């Protein structure tokens, strides 16, 4: 069709690790992982080089487990300044090809190439890929399709250094056979719900009754149903990344206080307001700012970036409190404020959101190790987590 769009999705391969290697050539060919809290054994792997992945090192794995699998693993803490500078250089380069470019995250973006009909799309993609490798020393994969969803799915098919084209007439061969969990925008909870209805592949979803999907899964289900059938009319939006500069709330306390109970209550209320606004805008945040105003009006402002996105009230509250406790001097407080910034579309951060629960699970690892040792010595089931014990009790009650 003459009016068909040509959309590129450019996805940098193992971005953090690749940037480290590009700036530290001595790391080339070495198994490398980027992890938060690298000084602790429970630090979580954020990304790893392809050399490390050959040993089984994976995102969400603890540093301790990763080093068991790969004793020679080199672990680096994220260098956000370097990554953002590199990202700025990347997107400045991409804007030379088209002004219609949407930054989806620090390491991926959509380009509307429809105006460049005189150039063969795969040839143009290879030229861009080679230039990024030559000038930034970074690998990337590029998906080419008539819309954003299919372009995103295409870029995931071959990594590293892949170039993949998906046409709507090819959905049955290249998309519908994939597990539903591999579909962009489907998180673990949605995946399990789909599976509970017998929807195990993207094709299963595409062949469902649209009204049934809308009834069971709501607006998001209808959107995913359309995507599964290759339909996505969202434009490439150059202003999407900058639309939300910041979301913030502050509260003046009823009286100047250093009482922890009142401070905790304030952060709880602020986190609830911020999470509701994030949900409304369908974004997550990667940076938090805490404001502490003391009784004498002296004001302290502290920024903190996070490797994983902030979305839920509990995570915002916990992160805010962590920043607060590191900077509070114990004096009476008049006002507390929390601001979120560095946003990303919620649909583009589905996988990263899963890391939060994994980070919390890792913190319980010493307790889990102890429970395993007791069960090994005295028999399986001697000691159980409370939630499993409660389920067992309920099951026994039902049987009787």
Automatic annotation (TrEMBL):
EC number(s) on file: 2.7.7.7
Cofactor(s) listed: Mg(2+)
Keyword Transferase among record annotations: yes
SUPFAM superfamilies: DNA/RNA polymerases, Lesion bypass DNA polymerase (Y-family), little finger domain
Active site: 108
Cross-referenced Pfam families: IMS, IMS_C, IMS_HHH
Main location: cytoplasm
Molecular functions per Gene Ontology: DNA-directed DNA polymerase activity
UniProt family annotation: Belongs to the DNA polymerase type-Y family.
Name of the protein described by the UniProt record: DNA polymerase IV
Organism in which the protein naturally occurs: Sporolactobacillus mangiferae
């Amino acid at each position: 069709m003459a009016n068909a769009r040509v959309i590129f999705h450019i996805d940098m391969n193992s971005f953090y690790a690749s940037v480290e290697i590009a700036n530290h050539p001595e790391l080339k060919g070495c198994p490398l992982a980027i992890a938060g809290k690298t000084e602790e054994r429970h630090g979580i792997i954020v990304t790893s080089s392809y050399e490390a992945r050959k040993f089984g090192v994976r995102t969400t794995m603890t540093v301790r487990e990763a080093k068991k699998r790969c004793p020679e693993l080199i672990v680096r803490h994220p260098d956000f300044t370097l990554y953002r500078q590199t990202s700025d250089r990347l997107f400045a380069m991409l804007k030379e090809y088209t002004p219609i470019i949407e930054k989806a995250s620090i390491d991926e973006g959509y380009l509307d190439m429809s105006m460049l009909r005189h150039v063969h799309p795969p040839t143009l993609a290879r030229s861009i890929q080679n230039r990024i490798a030559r000038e930034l020393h970074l690998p990337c994969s590029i998906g080419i399709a008539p819309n954003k969803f299919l372009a995103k799915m295409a870029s995931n098919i071959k990594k590293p250094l892949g170039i993949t084209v998906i046409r709507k007439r090819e959905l049955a061969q290249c998309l519908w056979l994939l597990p539903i969990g591999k579909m962009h925008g489907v998180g673990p909870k949605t995946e399990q719900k789909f599976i509970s209805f017998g929807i195990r592949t993207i094709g299963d979803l595409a062949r469902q009754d649209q009204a049934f999907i809308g009834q069971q899964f709501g607006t998001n289900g209808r959107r995913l149903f359309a995507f599964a059938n290759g339909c996505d009319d969202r434009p490439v939006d150059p202003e999407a990344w900058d639309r939300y500069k910041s979301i913030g709330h502050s509260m003046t306390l009823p009286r100047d206080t250093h009482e922890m109970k009142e401070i905790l209550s304030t952060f709880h209320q602020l986190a609830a307001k911020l999470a509701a606004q994030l949900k409304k805008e369908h974004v997550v945040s990667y940076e938090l700012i805490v404001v502490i105003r003391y009784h004498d009006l002296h004001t302290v402002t502290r920024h903190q970036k996070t490797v994983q996105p902030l979305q839920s009230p509990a995570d915002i509250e916990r992160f805010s409190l962590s920043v607060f406790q590191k900077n509070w001097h114990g004096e009476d407080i008049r006002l507390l404020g929390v601001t979120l910034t560095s946003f990303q579309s919620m649909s583009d951060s589905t996988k990263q959101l899963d890391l939060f629960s994994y980070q919390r699970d890792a913190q319980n690892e010493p307790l889990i190790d102890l429970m395993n040792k007791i069960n090994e010595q005295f028999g399986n089931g001697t000691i159980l987590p409370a939630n499993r014990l409660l389920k067992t009790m309920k099951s026994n009650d039902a049987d009787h």
